[in-house]
Amino acid sequence: MRPFSFGGVLLATFIYIANAEFTSSHKLHKRIHVYPPYVQVKPRSYIVQFEDYLPPTHAGHFYSMPGVDVQHHYSNIFNGISVRTDCSADSTHLASVNGVKRVWPVRVYTAAGYSTGLNATYPYIHKPTGVERAIEELGLDGKGIHIGIVDTGVDYNHPELGNCWKTKGCMWQYGADLVGDKYNPYTENPIIVPKQTPMDCAGHGTHVSGIIAGQGPTVYGVARNVTLGMYRVFGCPGTDPGAGQTSDDFIIKGIEMAVADKSDIISLSLGGGSWSDGPSSIAASNAVKQGIVVVAAVGNDGTGGLHTVSAPAVGNGVLGVGSVDSWNYTVSMMMIVNEHTSQSVFITPSNTVGYPFIFETDTPVVSLVNNSDVEACVNITQDLTGIVAVFEITSNCSPLSTIASIAQAGAVGIILIYTKPGLTYPTLETGQIPLVVISSDNGQFLLDAIAQGPTTIKALKSNPTITIPADKGSGQISTFSSMGPDPNLGLSPHVMAPGGYIYSTFPLKFGSYFVLSGTSMATPYVSGAVALLKQARPNLTVKEIGEILLTTAHPIINSKTKKVEHPYKGGSGLINVYDAIKSRAKIDPPMLSLNSTTRGVITTYQDLSALGNVRWTVRTIKLTNMDVNNNMRIDIDYSISDSLSMYYKNGSIAYTPRVWTGNAITGGINNTEPVVYIPDAVKSIPSGKTGQYTVILVAPKGLAECEGWYFGGQLNFNLKWDGDLNITPYHVPFAGFNGDYTKLDVLAPLGSGFPFLGDENAKPVDPKNLVVSASNPISVYFSMALPSHLGILQLVDANNKKIGYLPQGYATDIPHTCPTCSVPNISVIVNGTVFTDTDLTNAIEAPAGKYYLHSAFLRPFGNTSNSDDYQTWDSPEFTIG
Ligand SMILES: *[C@@H]1O[C@H](CO)[C@@H](O)[C@H](O)[C@H]1NC(C)=O
Ligand SMILES: *[C@@H]1O[C@H](CO)[C@@H](O)[C@H](O)[C@H]1NC(C)=O
Ligand SMILES: *[C@@H]1O[C@H](CO)[C@@H](O)[C@H](O)[C@H]1NC(C)=O
Ligand SMILES: *[C@@H]1O[C@H](CO)[C@@H](O)[C@H](O)[C@H]1NC(C)=O
Ligand SMILES: *[C@@H]1O[C@H](CO)[C@@H](O)[C@H](O)[C@H]1NC(C)=O
Ligand SMILES: *[C@@H]1O[C@H](CO)[C@@H](O)[C@H](O)[C@H]1NC(C)=O
Ligand SMILES: *[C@@H]1O[C@H](CO)[C@@H](O)[C@H](O)[C@H]1NC(C)=O
Ligand SMILES: *[C@@H]1O[C@H](CO)[C@@H](O)[C@H](O)[C@H]1NC(C)=O
Ligand SMILES: *[C@@H]1O[C@H](CO)[C@@H](O)[C@H](O)[C@H]1NC(C)=O
Ligand SMILES: *[C@@H]1O[C@H](CO)[C@@H](O)[C@H](O)[C@H]1NC(C)=O
Question: Is the shortest distance between the CB of 539 and ligand 7 below 6 Å?
Answer without folding.
Answer: yes
